[in-house]
Amino acid sequence: MPRTLLLTTLTLTLAALLNTTPTAQAAATTPTCRAAKHPALARQLTRDLKTALAGRRGGVSLAVHDDRTKLDCTLTPRTRYDAASLVKVLMMEATLRRAQSRGRGPTAWERGNLAPMIRRSDNTAAGRLWNDLGRTRLGTTLTQAGATRTILGPRGYWGLTRTTAADQLRLLDKLTARRSFLSATSRAYGLKLMSEVRKNQRWGVPAGMPRGVRAHLKNGWLPRATHGWRVHSIGAFTGQGRTYRIAVLSHDNPSMAYGVRTVERVAQAVHRTLNKGRAAGIGLTPPDEISEQSDGSVPQDAPDAPERPAWYASGAPGAAARTARAR
């Protein structure tokens, strides 16, 4: 090959590699749904989710479970994302679990921080609970929930906790399942707070939800220099004789509005398939109602959290608790 042509080819190849940024890449679009007794339902939702994600940019993970049909859907459910404000659900569960272990309900101080942390995503309240609970207790809660791929954020950077869609679904399960480390009273309290999230934070997984179903949700939305906008939404849905859970995590979104639309297209597909024949009571969030402002869960100058610290044993029993003790 002539030297000039070789140099040109190398230059173009290098340029292509440099320009293939995560934001420019298409999201993975091969979700998988399974339901042993309802194969047709699983096939339909697999098709609908693939259509919902077609052409979407960025990284997307999802996990869905329907208690009635035992349907499960996943897409890269073990990929880790910066949790942003999603970690507040873990803090809530750890607080309720601690109260139970001491034979009492949550104190006035605990309730005074739990309510604003969940209802309006108050970060000051979250910081108080993070420090009060301590890393060991938070790690133990993760381990007992089976959320062993979640890594607590370094030092006081709780918004940089690294989590997965599968782990978020496991934490939601502790709020809806009878077999849980949370009592019926604690579960009811936690679900009530998540059903009272303020209006401007109720975007995401409720999109497409029919009337008569109640959403219990928490969102996270955070822009960073790496991976652009993280836009996450998780929720448990109850009513009309069924309970199901949805967790959608994403990053490399060019804007918050783009990430919200990706999450909501997934949610629409799930609600439509699980509630066939019922009209949607909630539509997509209008773009002018999406703020494009961070949830404030991480300071702008915070360093990136490590994907897998040297002392973290991925998937090993008790890994989350060891993570807590190691720091």
Give a structural overview.
The protein is of the alpha+beta class. The protein has a single domain (27-326), classed as Beta-lactamase (3-Layer(aba) Sandwich). The chain contains ten helices and eight strands. It has a six-stranded antiparallel beta sheet with strand order 1-3-2-8-7-6, sandwiched between helices. Helix 3 (87-101) runs antiparallel to helix 4, helix 3 crosses helix 6 (135-145) and helix 6 runs antiparallel to helix 10 (319-326). Mean pLDDT is 88; it is low at 1-24 and 310-327.
- Compute the gyration radius: what is it? 20 Å
CATH homologous superfamily name?
DD-peptidase/beta-lactamase superfamily
Order of helices and strands: HEHEEEHHHHEHHEEEHH
Helix content: 40-55%
| The level-1 CATH class | Alpha Beta
Q: Give the overall silhouette.
A: globular
The side-by-side strand order for the widest beta sheet comes to: 1-3-2-8-7-6
Q: What is the multimeric organization of the chains shown?
A: single chain
